[in-house]
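Worked example

This section walks through a single chain of length 163. The input is the sequence exactly as stored; nothing has been trimmed or padded.
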Amino acid sequence: MTKIHGTHWMVRATCITLGAGAVLGIINGFNAMGSTASGSPVMCAVAVLIYLAIGAAAVGLWFGEDLGLQATRLLLVQIPLAQSASFSYLFYTGALGVLYGGSKFGLQGLVGSSFALGIYPGSASNGDYIVGVNLLAIAMLVILGRVDLLPSASPPPLPQSPS
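Given that input, the structure is written out below as tokens.
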């Protein structure tokens, strides 16, 4: 597989998507901390910290830092989607393109950021469930897996000694 440089337009688009999504996620997390309907303030704080890390990784990648590239592996948490009567999980930054199946099938796209984790013990199981994958997160991981931050493969020429 060919490598792409860190300044390639696909890498820049990934950085912009992750950075903008991180800002939206941080804003949503702080807004949710004050709301009683959004769940635990601790979970909102964890989501804000994850979005901060994703934003920092996007900025680091933009400036060609290896740590930024390695930290974008946080995208792995954005791939799965699950929802049932007793459990739900959804996490995305910037955009979501999910292919899902279960009691419903489909493809859905969203722009923004969202984090939802719910465990509902003792809930009545009605048999409805959805399992999906975020295709955009997979595409971003494929792009980032091809990034080469090194300047070039050929070393500069050695200086010649005067004879």
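What to look for: Helices lie at 9-33, 41-62, 66-71, 135-145.
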